[in-house]
């Protein structure tokens, strides 16, 4: 094992390089004594199937992260390709993200994004501070899905994700 350490990568280079990794888009929701909170994330991953665990990364100081930790519960709302507007709504800082939305609640009293592709209800299992992020591990206590195509994120922009061998959905109104 080498005792030499590699030079740190420039944050912009790190952002550009990691932007080449396609992800889905989710909104994390919770509710604490001050009311409902939510924010858009794409730093989310499954950690374990047995027991069912996932993790989500929040910027340090994010109000939603603080509310998740204080309430001890949250919902991961995986967005469909038709929900880019919801992703943008919950990405705006300092806004009332729930204004005008008909709130629906998960089994453990946490607001959910209506018509999301999937919901994962979680209890906070562990919180870890790393770099400029707060990493929250969630014990998944409930999960539900619906049919549809996911909203993707690639190279700093929303994108479509389609399975190989299938045609993308066409939406006509």
From TrEMBL:
Annotated source species: Nocardioides jejuensis
InterPro entries attached to this UniProt entry: Flavin_Rdtase-like_dom (IPR002563), NADH-dep_flavin_reductase (IPR050268), Split_barrel_FMN-bd (IPR012349)
SUPFAM superfamilies: FMN-binding split barrel (SSF50475)
Domain (Flavin reductase like): residue spans on this chain: 18-160
Source species, domain of life: Bacteria
Transmembrane segments: none
Taxonomy of the source species: Bacteria, Bacillati, Actinomycetota, Actinomycetes, Propionibacteriales
Gene3D superfamilies: Electron Transport, Fmn-binding Protein, Chain A
Protein name as it appears in the record: Flavin reductase
UniProt keyword list: Oxidoreductase
One MF term in the entry's GO annotations: riboflavin reductase (NADPH) activity
PANTHER family, per database record: FLAVIN REDUCTASE, FMN REDUCTASE (NADH) RUTF
């Amino acid at each position: 094992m080498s005792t030499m350490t590699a030079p740190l990568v420039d944050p912009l280079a790190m952002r550009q390089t990691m932007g080449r990794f396609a992800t889905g888009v989710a909104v994390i929701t919770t509710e604490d004594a001050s009311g409902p909170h939510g924010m858009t994330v794409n730093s989310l991953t499954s950690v374990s199937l047995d027991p069912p665990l996932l993790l989500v990364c929040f910027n340090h100081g994010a109000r939603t992260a603080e509310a998740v930790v204080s309430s001890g519960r949250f919902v991961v709302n995986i967005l469909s390709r038709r929900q880019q507007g919801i992703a943008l709504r919950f990405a705006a800082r300092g806004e009332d993200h729930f204004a005008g939305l008909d709130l629906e609640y998960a089994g453990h009293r946490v607001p959910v994004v209506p018509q999301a592709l999937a919901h994962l209800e979680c209890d906070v299992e562990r919180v870890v501070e790393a770099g400029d992020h707060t990493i929250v591990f969630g014990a998944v206590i409930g999960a539900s899905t619906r049919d549809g195509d996911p909203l993707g994120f690639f190279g700093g922009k929303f994108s479509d994700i389609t399975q190989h061998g299938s045609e993308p959905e066409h939406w006509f109104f």
